[in-house]
């Protein structure tokens, strides 16, 4: 123990020195603060001094205390490397990737909140439009034409109520809508079927919703429609008018799109065994009207309506008692009562054919019976052949 040699803990540069000065801190006044030479870390020991770089003055080897980092700054320096950069680039990329991952993780929540905000705004607009509509109805601030057509009521109430049936239930596909002119009058001639005249209503929505000009179809209806309570008033409001040549010609001369179904009750009430077989088109009255007005005739074929109420019979006794042209008997009606009146969800297709021009004929052309017959037959055959093509293309009644 007497020979034990004490090694000072402090920075002793010269073991052979004498006095306190040899064993004390360097004469420079202890730790020396540096500026840029230490990488800008204030208060860190200068190179060659303090614990950060302690070496034995005799053999030049590093002291065991040199293995101990000087502080957090030294750890950071080891991580960065000798050049002060180290893995900074990797750290930056990792940080960017983390931010991107955070954004991706929060994306669905942000999108959901935005969608909720848009839905709330849509509902606010709908409520505002509804209140404005009610105010106009109460105050009488709306227009009705000479035929009783209420365009606002039709667009916002009547067609809106039928649109789910059109879009979701029957899933109507519309072809050839470009054959209906964007302006001026035209006569749309279509087949008629389905036991109940739902095909006429679906045709009206098809023209309004799919035509670029959102044109209104003014349908010509049978006398029976205008003697039924409630139905007659709604038909007038929806723009329907009596199927007479005078009303049709007036509408065409005003530049309206007029719809007519020449088969009438013969096509609407035919048995299921005769589906998609056109009935007689009358005496060609629609051709005479188009010739006098000088407007084109647009053939229209509807597939899908024949199967909504498959009529397997008709009760003539009940038809006479009720004043109807027929009383349908289907596999579900009248056996299931009101449930039997729910139509089958068939897939519909409505195709508008190329217009048949009438403007080149002389004014007295409507008095030529042969011309009337030829044009009537041409329109009828066009509709019939189009029905056959659509039936061949159809994969299923319901799909």
Automatic annotation (TrEMBL):
TM region(s), chain numbering: none
Electron transport among keywords: no
Record's compositionally biased regions (Low complexity): 66-76
Keywords annotated in UniProt: Acyltransferase, Transferase
Listed Gly residues bias regions: 36-51
Region (Disordered): 1-120
Record-level GO cellular component terms: membrane
A Pfam family matched in the record: Acyltransferase
SMART domains with a match to the protein in the record: PlsC
One annotated GO molecular function: acyltransferase activity
Domain Phospholipid/glycerol acyltransferase: 186-305
PANTHER family: MONOACYLGLYCEROL_DIACYLGLYCEROL O-ACYLTRANSFERASE (PTHR22753:SF14), TRANSMEMBRANE PROTEIN 68 (PTHR22753)
Descriptive protein name: Glycerol acyltransferase
The species this protein was found in: Streptomyces carminius
Upper taxonomic lineage: Bacteria, Bacillati, Actinomycetota, Actinomycetes, Kitasatosporales
